[in-house]
Records
---
Amino acid sequence: MSTSLRFKMVAEAFNRKAAPVDIPEKRPDEYYGELVFNRQKMFEYLPLKVYNALINAIENKKPIGRELADSVADGMRRWAIDNGARHYTHWFHPLTDGTAEKHEAFVEHNGKGGVVEEFSGKLLMQQEPDASSFPNGGIRNTFEARGYSVWDISSPAFIMEQTLCIPTIFISYTGESLDYKAPLLRALNSVDKAAAAVARYFDPEVKHVVSYLGWEQEYFLVDESLYSARPDLVMTGRTLMGHESPKNQQLEDHYFGSIPSRVQAFMLELEIRCHRLGIPVKTRHNEVAPNQFELAPIYEETNLANDHNLLLMSLMTEVARKHNFRVLLHEKPFAGVNGSGKHNNWSLGTDRGTQLFAPGKTPKDNLQFITFVVNVMAAVHRHNALLKASIMSATNAHRLGANEAPPAIISIFTGSQLAKTLEDICASDDSDCLSLQSKSEYSLGLSQIPEILIDNTDRNRTSPFAFTGNRFEFRAVGSTANCASAMIALNAAVADQLADFHIKIEQRLSAGEELNKALLAEIRVLIEQSKDIHFDGNGYSDEWKAEAARRGLDCETCAPKIFDAYLAPESVEMFRRTGVFTRVELEARNEVKWEMYTKKIQIEARVLGDLALNHIIPVATRYQSMLIDNAVKLKELFGERGLDVAASNLEAIEKISKHIGIIRTAVRTMVDARKQANAIDDERTKAVAYHDNVASQMEIIRYSIDKLELLVDNEMWPLPKYRELLFIR
Ligand code: ADP
Ligand code: MG
């Protein structure tokens, strides 16, 4: 790109006005959910008997028969066509980032040269997407097995782009999951059963426990012209080079600052689109880095919340384009400023309306609260390595452990009040248990817990997993992630822990122990066992890294090795007991993780190599020639004194040569490292080689390119700079 073109793009980006927004004439409560086949639409479009049977199946997680499916499909099709849909698709979450769909029109030959609208229960329930190229870690060999997508009746169908989208799970012919949704549903089922059994100690009427998720999606926006001039952004979603802008986030003037009008227009349109699709987005604001923003909904049942997050990410991409932006969901699009995460606010609640992580008004409620919180702590302690693996990826690796995001060590922040309560419980003896029974105000401090809600001021931003009053906030999740990965590991681990707790309590009860006494005894054991997971201090500090290692918490930082935790015996057993994954599934999924890791680094390395050799070095050399030319002329002009006069030029000439030399050598080393790594068969070993030998060279190359950016004439520099990319006016 010639410079004048770069300047033109920058000017265009800076002068761009907010795009007009299609604001519906209806009120938000009227258009909310209008593109969703929700209960109201079901009631309208299905015969009453069919409606009742479907709701019964949804609520009790029962399979539905062929006849019922035919009737539901018929109603769903009529609703979809009435609302402008012409196609339908099974919508699923393969093991790549994002979602997949294959559209079919609602038409069939009518045998008379025309067509009829058609959509049968069979087509609704199950399909066989021609999807042999989705990652499957060897489970789904193209030659032997087929993959099926199967309707997930718990998540409502919706219309997007004139297409009826039916949320589905994606499994192999032999029943192994090939997606995120199937294991998520299994994990949610398992936490439902295990948590309900424990919740019944406090309220015998509890039938189900629901897992809730409220995600907070962070993202960057970049003007589309500038984006298109950055091949690294286009191909990898992040900048592989770029010197820090003199001003970035140091003034802290972006966070919660006023939102630029162009961005505001984008947000408004996005919210309207979300609301029409029944996604309850609520909060929007600027984030810490320039051009960084956040969007959060009201929390929902975890499976639905996750579908909504995935849908949101596609919507964002689409709406951004209409507003001449590109949305960057990458965890670390720009070096030197904060990256993006997706905090997962998570809680459990009973079908009787009790929030299990919220302190209550009576000691009994609080004993229930403590029971659940302590079981979560125990599960997170036991499976801290697995939880870290569940959020790890080639892209999130750039964010974790940097001084802005949670460290690459999982610990729990409880806040001082909860910590004190747990200490008191451990220090108390059985006479306190009796006073609990008599509802004494002061027993164990259990009646004091509601104050925790007020004690939220000391929220610790460095903690990867924090208790925040009535929920836990898993903050290490990356902005591009499918939340299901974290939610599968967390819900399954907690389910397994609660099941174990239940067994222990039952043993005590059958030995004649009184319930409260049994609960407190087991709670004490868990507090003792898992106290090493509790850390309220500064997670960024080096002392914590040393301390965490002493405590035996997982401190691995190499992403491909972090994935090993999925295959550790305690994980395999836990997933087997909860029925979430078989060993075969875990092995296959790890193959996919390693393969994806390798591919991402491979693409980045290629893009960086090309840019270094074809964009940066030619420009630096041309500028250097100008300097040389100038030095030669100075020498002619000044004779003997010429070299002195040209001294600073000579210095710059040398520096440029030095950096060009470093870049060429590192690119060569990187290409060789790639060749060697590519020859490795084992996916894990290959990924580790990419981590150790390829990614490390990229940093060396970047460092010298960023130095050249400061040396070379601004007019000649081919790529939009950070200061141009990062400030939307
Ligand atoms: P923050 O101060 O962390 O930004 P917000 O009040 O914006 O917190 O809430 C973040 C998210 O947490 C929202 O999606 C919200 O609905 C969700 N949330 C609130 N309470 C719960 C809960 N009990 N369970 C799960 N998510 C919750
Ligand atoms: Mg939060």
---
Amino acid sequence: MLKLAASTQFDLPTLGKSMHELLCALFPLPRSITGDGLRATISAINDILPLNVSEVPSGERVFDWIVPPEWAIDEAYLEDEAGRRIVDWRESNLHVIGYSEAVDAWFSLDELRPHLHSLPDRPEWVPYRTSYYKRDWGFCIAHRVLGTLPEGRYHAVIRSRLFPGSLTLAETLIPGESSEEILIFAHDCHPSLSNDNLSGVVVAAHLAAYLREQPTRFSYRFVFAPATIGSIAWLARNESVLPRVRAGLVLSLLGAPGPFHYKTSRAGDREIDAAAKHVLATDYPGSCLLPFMPWGYDERQFCSPGIDLPMGRLTRVPNGEFAEYHTSADDTSFVTAEALGEAWLACLRIFEAVERNQYYVNLLPKGEPQLGRRGLYRSIGGYQDVPERQLALLWVLNQSDGNSSMLDIAHKSGLPFRLIGDAADDLEAVGLLALAASARCQMKP
Ligand code: ZN
């Protein structure tokens, strides 16, 4: 079972730095929902975490969707009559609309305008745009640069190909004591953008690398796939896995400073919801709780009515609610090692709460058992949190009638989950508490 040390025992600065380094290495790769940039990303993650890779062929039906053709791009630029390059895909892969079809032609500025995308409110930033399912082509450009373009002829060149290929899925399963699974999903299809969602990718990869070395009660499955079409393809191919999913998290937007935001599962009252709410409320003051809504990231698929997994979503400031979202300003300097490290530990704390959320029965429920005789009532010693530790023992004894989980007791008592879990361990060790037989592997309905 996953039992984490105190936060001070983790070297979060070093870990955060390692995540940020991986993020910087992945940043320039020209990712999309298919293609070699995506494969190169998976290959780089594979260096720290062995992944099982599968390819879903273009044209395969996945629920109501069809896997699109693969997209490859070799070169793209816009140049003026003097041959000066206005934008060049080699400088930033955001400069080309994802899935642009090929073009090699001269245009007047007016003819070109419908194919040029900029942000008038943020004239220095380049927007991120895609057109996966409607054939189109275009460039994304800083509005300031667009404003300097004189009338004249412009040469638009995009050397891209759309062809029958495949979409890349990657995952790893880390076995635990139980075959019940915790499912973690991170989308990996955005090109040079950091917070959305390389932050989710690197946090997930480092969580998996850590959990591989730990004894865990549950098995952990990490899935890296493109947003929407990737999660749908994974779900369509893995329906047999879904009954084993006990809890899960969609991870995104974890690297920029800002409070955590937890979005609940579709039902809103699953074990993962209780765990995340409790951990964030006690360990990360200022965190926000969002009710489920069918908009956002891949929780839309995992929480669709025919799938309805007990999965929530953890981000910091959500998509669309910060100015840098889907722009060139979401670069490697926008995310910090500190924010990544803190998010990594927050996820582990949530997993720990799910793992330790058991049901117990008090074996001496008539009156309070005499704790001092059993060495549990510490009246002396250097424990700063002695009163809370003692209170936790009393709460666990009082509420453990087989119907209250550890999270229920933590919630009712207002004490940190860790104290409640440790109190249960202490009480079990001296024979005052036992796992409730009927609830040993059960969740509340
Ligand atoms: Zn996005």
